[in-house]
Design goal:
Elements (H helix, E strand, L loop, with lengths): L1 E4 L1 H6 L16 E9 L2 E8 L5 E5 L6 H18 L3 H11 L4 E4 L3 H20 L8 H9 L11 H5 L4
Parallel strand pairs: 1-2, 1-5
Antiparallel strand pairs: 2-3, 3-4
Helix pairs in contact: 2-3
């Protein structure tokens, strides 16, 4: 598994000059960005090939190990909720045996993630205390939204091919 962190996330964990790794197989890559909405810190972790994404709060995350645990747990919960439990065994479990951390490369994925962050900020600005504004519900919303990067497919449908 290759996890590509934006500059903002690299600064959070005080990583200096991560060596870039060339893209090889997008199904093995995740992109991670950080954003703040309503004074809360959130992370957005996006599967590079499908754009399947999870949002989770950044509160209490101080180390990269805590971050990885929270990201993988959020991803498992989101996939399971979508009824795609086999994706965890077929995609996530084999990839977590070796994890490489590097910097981002693909601007098209980052652009899609920026769109996701803007949508999320808009929803959170509208009402922070509703069920629709939980990180879980926001992730569910993003995964049902079509994106041009994946040919106007929905990330939920795209990740299902790994089941």
């Amino acid at each position: 598994m290759i996890i590509r962190f934006t500059k903002k996330v690299q600064d959070k964990f005080k990583w200096k000059q991560l060596k870039p790794i060339a893209e090889s197989n997008l199904s093995n890559e995740w992109y991670v960005n950080q954003f703040t909405a309503n004074r809360h810190k959130y992370y957005l972790a996006t599967h590079a090939e499908s754009l399947f994404s999870v949002i989770f709060r950044g509160v209490g995350i101080k180390t990269d190990g805590e971050f990885m645990d929270r990201m993988i747990e959020a991803w498992k919960n989101q996939v399971t909720n979508e009824g795609l439990e086999t994706v965890v065994n077929n995609l996530l479990v084999p990839l977590t045996k070796e994890i490489l951390i590097t910097s981002t490369l693909n601007r098209r994925i980052l652009g899609s993630m920026s769109d996701m962050i803007k949508m999320t900020e808009f929803i959170l600005a509208d009402g922070d205390n509703t069920e629709d504004s939980s990180p879980f519900a926001l992730s569910e919303f993003l995964n049902k939204t079509p994106f041009s990067y994946i040919g106007m497919d929905r990330p939920k449908d795209r990740i299902a091919k790994y089941s």
